[in-house]
Amino acid sequence: MLLPIDSASKAIALINSRSLKSEIAQHCQVYQQSLIKQGYFNSEIKEYIVGGIGAFIVLGLGCYKLMSALSRRHHNILFWRC
Fold first, then answer.
1. Contact 5, 11 (CB under 8 A)
2. pTM of the full structure
3. What is the spatial distance between Cα 27 and Cα 25, in angstroms, rounded to a whole number?
4. Tens place of pLDDT for every residue, the chain, 82 residues?
5. Biggest CA-to-CA distance, the chain
6. CA angle 27, 28, 29 (to 5 degrees)
7. For labelling alongside 80, which of 36, 52, 65, 68 has CA 20 to 30 A away?
């Protein structure tokens, strides 16, 4: 059962307690194992895929903004040529 925390010092003590950290780590490990069994969290290749998709989105939005600025005859984008 969760008890109310009525002071900042109690909150800080609770956050810094090792028992809370180990309990959270235990639950996270169980969740991570279930993700590995289901195939959602099993290889480093997926990290590269997600990173590549993220980079593509960022670069795509940047190019869109550049083309939009140029189409509206805004030429104050010279700082991009670094």
1. yes
2. 0.41
3. 5
4. 466 777 777 777 777 777 778 888 888 888 888 888 887 776 666 777 788 899 999 999 989 988 888 888 877 766 655 4
5. 62
6. 90
7. 52
